[in-house]
Amino acid sequence: MGYRCIQCWCPVKTLYVQYSPGNIRLMKCENCKAVADEYIECEIMILVIDLILHKPKAYRHLLHNVINQETMKFHGLLWKLAVIFLLFESYRCLILESSKGKLGSSNSVSSLVSICWKVLMDVIIGNLMFLLTFFFMVKMFFHVSITISRCIDLLLTLMISSYFKIFLIAMMVWDFPSSVIFIIELFCLSSNAAALKVMTESTMRRCVWTCFSAYAIKFIVTRILELILLGQLMQGWSQMPFTFSKATMI
Ligand SMILES: [Zn+2]
């Protein structure tokens, strides 16, 4: 996957020519005659603002001209992003558990273990179902074959476009209501859809439906897991007096 013009999406040989350190000339696209990628010379904050504004050119620059399989250590980046993504997801689950008052009231080892178990199940099974639904919807809506390289591309697109999760760090410092997580998830959904549109060049409606379905399945699966875990705990508590009375009788 080579470089592309962020205006018209045509392949270009190179984005700039470097004459000396700090002295570069941006290349023009042969198709549309515009500068192929003006973000090369822009400050990082301008790129961040344009990403937040969901400008397709900013996503094209980031997903195709910066994250390039031919010019960077692609798999190393994939693993690092996956670890960061899962850490943010774990922290999100912990915030939700603390908002329910479970962390504050947990003074026994067993309740702490059950919370850790729930967070682990939410993160692993929730995100696994999210990815399976996402790939299935991409196959159904966009009529493309899901190969390993396409899976990696889509996975990277999802993780990079979930950059709004970085705002969870602010919740470590300042005390926000847990409803802020819902707003962050909403921004992530819209950003995922914008990135998917850039990757597939499809309509925004299809991209939003694809991402919304994946988020909905993830939400339903985590709620079911919570109910199953709650059911097991209730069953365990209901058996405790019986076993206790049986022990005292003996
Ligand atoms: Zn062009």
TrEMBL record:
The chain crosses the membrane at residues 77-99, 119-142, 154-174, 180-200, 212-234. One of its GO terms (cellular component) is Golgi apparatus. The keyword Repressor does not apply. The keyword Membrane applies. GO terms for biological process: intracellular sterol transport; regulation of plasma membrane sterol distribution; sphingolipid metabolic process; sterol metabolic process. It is found in: Endoplasmic reticulum membrane. It is a multi-pass membrane protein. Signal peptide: none annotated. It holds the Pfam family Arv1. Keywords: Endoplasmic reticulum, Lipid metabolism, Lipid transport, Membrane, Sphingolipid metabolism, Transmembrane, Transmembrane helix, Transport. Regulates also the sphingolipid metabolism. Belongs to the ARV1 family. PANTHER family: ARV1, PROTEIN ARV1. This is Protein ARV. The lineage of its organism: Eukaryota, Viridiplantae, Streptophyta, Embryophyta, Tracheophyta.
